[in-house]
Amino acid sequence: MKTSFPKLSATVLFVALCAVSTGASAQDAKKAMATKLAQMQAKSDGAALANQLTADAVQLPLSAWSQRLDESVPPARQKDVRDKLDVELKKFADNTHKAIEAQVSKAAETALVPLFMDKLSEDEMKTVIAYMESPAAVKFQSLSGDAGNAWAQKVIDATRSTVEANVKSFDAAATKIVGVPATPPAGAPANGAASGSKK
């Protein structure tokens, strides 16, 4: 007995091909939106991310070498050595920042597109993109620096007396442990007040 595949009508075959094509084009449209959203995210937050990752990278050698300097360099040479280390640390920070900054946009698409495609629907991405492109969002983003500064200043003003009291307590305890009163950093208020203008 000879078996054969049933003959499909041209209409059924066309409908099947269209369904596959529509699914692929819908996926392509969703990926295009996810890519656009990732690019917008990189533009909005990329600089802050690069700065934060650079600060984190700088912290490791800074901590290690500060401790080594205190332990192995005589006090008379410490200022000169610190100045030279600061020059090298700035070179390290600048080179590290350039390397990180170059990867921020590239990594945004690689990391964010699959995440957005998995976690957000096409309609949700459309909504987010529409908001991010809206004049209200642009205006809101432009206020972020002023808003952050105003917020920080209120926190500084509200905690100034507590911070000053805590600095005095720490200085007193440190003086007992080390045996030498603390010297405030250049430009710092002698009473250890929190940064920010006094009102």
UniProtKB/TrEMBL annotation:
Stretch forming the signal peptide: 1-26
Keywords: Signal
The protein's name in its UniProt record: DUF2059 domain-containing protein
Species annotation: Ottowia pentelensis
